[in-house]
């Protein structure tokens, strides 16, 4: 593992990594952030690389804890809805983006309390596991700060509202499986143990790399 100042993508933290269970801390747009294993970067640089990481993983959102940063930052996108016609699936994912979002210190307010359980939900930190039935508010209002330090407010409903709620959960150490009955997690026990093993291997390699870096090797 190297220490590039501007990595193309970040490695994703996986289920079982303690950082995914920590409550993230507020940040400012002017902060300097250090993703473990990489050189310090501006918040904008980190956000840009998070978006690239998300695209490579074919995701719709990514929270800072998922790259090892316990700060209240997430990125998300809204894609064109062309699944029904099955068009454009061979196009690069970025060409299908309608809007992208970078949110610092997001605060969610539910504006439609009716729960929606119709969408299938997954997580880049829990690869290969998808479940329907995750209860999410149908519509939310998000207050946040953008990369220029400007306070903004946006409202979202349906799938985009779900994306925002999923990413905001990450900032509080909550995973989507937590919002389903315990037997669902138990059903995936074998798969989750395998993901945890990958997580432990990555963390051990990261710790070894950090020791070598400090030793000047």
Automatic annotation (TrEMBL):
GO BP terms, alphabetized: translation
Top EC class for this record: hydrolase
Residues reported in the UniProt entry to bind Fe cation: 123, 166, 170
Details of cofactor binding: Binds 1 Fe(2+) ion.
GO molecular function term, any single one: metal ion binding
Protein's UniProt keywords contain Iron: yes
EC number: 3.5.1.88
Catalytic site positions: 167
One Pfam family named in its UniProt record: Pep_deformylase
Cofactor section: Fe(2+)
InterPro entries (alphabetical): Peptide_deformylase (IPR023635), Peptide_deformylase_sf (IPR036821)
Regions that span the bilayer: none
Catalytic activity entry: N-terminal N-formyl-L-methionyl-[peptide] + H2O = N-terminal L-methionyl-[peptide] + formate
PANTHER family: PEPTIDE DEFORMYLASE
HAMAP family per the UniProt record, alphabetical: Pep_deformylase
Protein name: Peptide deformylase
Species whose genome carries this gene: Deinococcus grandis
């Amino acid at each position: 593992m190297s220490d590039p100042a501007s990595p193309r993508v970040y490695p994703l933290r996986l289920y079982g990594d303690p950082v995914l269970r920590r409550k993230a801390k507020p940040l400012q747009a002017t902060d300097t952030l250090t993703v473990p294993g990489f050189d310090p970067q501006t918040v904008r640089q980190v956000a840009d690389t998070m978006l690239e990481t998300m695209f490579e993983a074919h995701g719709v959102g990514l929270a800072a804890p998922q790259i090892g940063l316990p700060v209240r930052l997430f990125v998300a996108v809204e894609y064109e809805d062309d699944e029904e016609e099955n068009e454009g699936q061979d196009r690069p994912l970025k060409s299908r983006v309608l809007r992208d979002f970078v949110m610092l210190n997001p605060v969610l307010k539910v504006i439609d309390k009716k729960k929606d359980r119709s969408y299938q939900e997954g997580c880049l930190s829990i690869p290969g596991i998808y479940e329907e039935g995750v209860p999410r508010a149908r519509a939310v209002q998000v207050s946040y700060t953008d990369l220029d330090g400007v306070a903004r407010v946006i409202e979202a409903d349906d799938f985009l509202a779900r994306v925002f709620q999923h990413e905001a959960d990450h900032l509080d150490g909550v995973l989507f499986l937590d919002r389903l009955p315990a037997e669902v997690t138990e059903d995936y026990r074998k798969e989750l143990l395998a993901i945890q093993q990958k997580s432990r291997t990555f963390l051990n390699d990261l710790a070894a790399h950090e020791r070598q870096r400090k030793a000047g090797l």
